[in-house]
Amino acid sequence: MHSRRKLMKAGLAAAAFAATNVSAQAAGETTSRSNGSDELPRKLTVLSIRQEDGRETMGVKTTAGVLDVSAATKLLGLTAPLTLEALLVNGGNAELKTLVETALKAPDAKAAFLDESKIKFGRLFTKPGKIVCLGLNYREHVEETGQKLPSLPILFNKYNNSLAPHLATVQLPPRDVCYKFDYETELVVVMGRKASNVRAEDALSYVAGYAVGNDFTSRDLQLEVPGGQWMVGKTLDNFAPIGPYFVSADQIDPNNLDLETRVNGEVRQSSNTTKLIFNPQKIIAYASRLFALEPGDIIFTGTPSGVIVGYPKEKQIWLKAGDKIESTIQGLGTLSFVLA
User: Fold this and answer.
1) Virtual CA dihedral for 157, 308, 237, 260, nearest 10 degrees?
2) Would the N or C end of the chain have less CB density within 10 A of its end CB?
3) Hey, where are the domains in the chain?
4) Which tens digits make up the pLDDT trace of 38-67?
């Protein structure tokens, strides 16, 4: 009886040890992926496809059209990350490259190539760990709003509920909640490697790519409620459209990009990222001293002058249902959405 008990205890201890080892191995794999050990994307431009079943999966722009990654994996029997977030967080650049190269040569994959004009866009990002935003980051914007030039980056946040796709219809809240709606075209930086206390001169090596974003804002909630509510005024549902594309960092110089906003075809903002007070390198260096930036985190880098809140009071005509907003950034495409 004694020996049986010893054997049972030994077996339980061995099982516990094995389970601990498996857990540790899994944790190690998760850590290495979150640290961005996989190489960063290169020569990659992707969008998000909203499938008929509601899934939002990755599409890769190619010379033959947009490759529906989900469809291609099924047709070719290959594996690859199905979403941009999975690619950034878990890796899989080599697998995705193999899938694209194989699909371009395989007659069986022809059905996986789509005409972009017929795609229903999904959200590029659905659950980033952090959405970091910059306030007052263009000198002319600071001046038009009557603020002082910041000595350090002004950081605030949005939440995942605010994320919206290219060609979204943004439903505005009732007037008794808020009504002073404003546009803010911004360069969005997408992190690809874990950045903690990095130097400005090294910061861009942690970036996976860039996208166009609009930090859509309710100015009355942001500025006119007691104490000011920057987060509340900027993180209502669908108040962070991003798209149409994610473009890998090797294809973009973030420090010299033209930006433009149009409302119903009228140009409202026109500037260049050379006018940023804190460029992406400085933003990443500063933020990473405060908290680690992880793969898949996104950073809205601030908006230039020309926003409605910067107009003289008598000329402030706030956005309303039916308006169409277009945000264009050089090399990244045009993000478009309408208000309802």
Assistant:
1) -80
2) N
3) 45-118, 131-339
4) 689 999 999 999 999 999 999 999 999 999
Cα–Cα–Cα angle for 62, 64, 70, rounded to 5 degrees: 65
pLDDT tens figures, 162-221: 999 999 999 999 999 999 999 999 999 999 999 999 999 999 999 999 999 999 999 999
**Token pair for 239:** 């108040």
Convert 123-138 into a string of H (helix), E (strand) and C (coil): CCCCCCCCEEEEECCE
Distances in Å between the Cα of 227 and the Cα atoms of 36, 110, 139, 200, 222 are 39, 57, 24, 33, 9
- DSSP annotation of 48 reads E
Measured CA to CA, the distance from residue 130 to residue 153 in angstroms comes to 17
Cα-Cα-Cα-Cα dihedral sign, residues 81, 87, 89, 90: positive
Read off the tokens for 249.
């960092």
Using alpha carbons, list the distances in angstroms from residue 242 to 101, 176, 237: 27, 27, 13
Question: What CA–CA distances, in Å, run from 2 to 8, 9, 46, 49, 218?
Answer: 10, 11, 65, 64, 74
Tell me the C-alpha distance between 167 and 187, whole Å: 18
CATH topology of domain 131-339: Fumarylacetoacetate hydrolase; domain 2 (3.90.850)
- Biggest CA-to-CA distance, the chain: 93
Rounded distance between C-alpha atoms, residue 81 and residue 86, angstroms: 6
Q: Tokens 């061995």 map to which residue?
A: 14
Structure confidence by residue, pLDDT tens digits, 136-146: 999 999 999 88
Q: Whole-prediction pTM value? A: 0.89
Strand pairing category for 181-182 and 217-218:
antiparallel
